[in-house]
Design a protein that fits this description.
Tetracycline Repressor, domain 2, DNA-binding transcription factor activity, transcription, transcription cis-regulatory region binding, Arc Repressor Mutant, subunit A, 74% helix, mainly alpha
C-alpha cells in the first residue's frame, strides 16, 4: 500500500520543478526585453506555457519572481557551494573557483544587459534597484564575507574586515574591461586574457591579505 503514494509523488515533483524553471527562464527573458514595469505575470505565464495560477503558486508576486530570477542567474556561475571551504582544499584554489565564476557571470550577455537595464531604470524605481542589489551583489558579498571569515579563522590569510575584503576582491575582478563592456566601447576578453586577469587578481589579493605569521621566516 505504501508503494502507491511514492509512485504518484515521484513524477509530480520533476514536473513542478520543470515548470518553475520554465517560469524563471521566461521571466529573465521578459525582464530583459521589456523591462520590469512592462513585464506582467500574465505575460510570464503565457511565455512559460503555464497558467497564471501556477506562476503565483511558485512566486507570490512580481518582486519575488524578479528576485528569484536574479538569484538563479548568479547561481548559474556561482553556486552556493563555491563559498564553502572544503577541508584540504588550498585557499588559492577556492578563490580561483569563485573568481572564474564571478568573471564569467558579470561578463555574460544576460548580466551586461541586466546591469544596463538597472542603470537606466534605477533613478525611476529605487525599490527595484534595492531588490536587484540585495538579490545579486549583496548576496554574493555576504557569501564571500562568510568564506573570508572562515579563512581568517583558519590562519591562511589575515582578514580583519571580511566584508571590506570581499568588496576589494570583486571590484578587482571587474576591472576596466568590464566597464568598457558595459559602456559598449569594448568586447569580451579572450579565454587566455580572462584567465590571466583572474590569476593576477587572486595572487594580488592573497599577497595583500597574507598572514604576517607566514612571512616570519623570510
Amino acid at each position: 500500500m505504501s508503494d502507491n503514494p511514492l509512485n504518484t509523488a515521484s513524477p509530480g515533483r520533476p514536473k513542478d520543478m520543470a515548470k518553475r524553471q520554465a517560469i524563471l527562464e521566461s521571466a529573465k527573458s521578459l525582464f530583459l526585453d521589456k523591462g520590469y514595469a512592462n513585464t506582467s505575470m500574465d505575460a510570464v505565464a503565457l511565455a512559460a506555457g503555464v497558467s497564471k495560477l501556477t506562476v503565483y503558486s511558485h512566486f507570490t508576486d512580481k518582486e519575488t519572481l524578479f528576485t528569484a530570477a536574479v538569484v538563479a542567474k548568479c547561481e548559474e556561475q556561482l553556486p552556493v557551494m563555491y563559498f564553502e571551504l572544503p577541508e584540504g582544499m588550498p585557499v588559492e584554489t577556492v578563490l580561483l573557483n569563485i573568481a572564474r565564476g564571478f568573471h564569467r557571470l558579470i561578463n555574460s550577455e544576460e548580466s551586461v544587459n541586466l546591469h544596463r537595464l538597472m542603470m537606466t531604470t534605477g533613478n525611476q524605481d529605487v525599490k527595484l534597484s534595492q531588490i536587484f542589489f540585495n538579490a545579486g551583489p549583496m548576496r554574493m558579498l555576504q557569501g564571500m564575507e562568510r568564506l573570508l571569515g572562515k579563512i581568517h579563522q583558519g590562519g591562511a590569510l589575515s582578514i580583519d574586515t571580511p566584508f571590506k575584503a570581499a568588496e576589494h576582491f570583486f571590484c578587482l575582478l571587474k576591472g576596466t574591461a568590464n566597464f568598457r563592456l558595459l559602456y559598449g566601447c569594448g568586447g569580451q576578453l579572450s579565454a587566455q586574457e580572462a584567465e590571466e586577469h583572474v590569476q593576477d587578481v587572486v595572487k594580488l589579493f592573497m599577497r595583500a591579505y597574507r598572514s604576517t605569521g607566514l612571512d616570519s621566516t623570510a
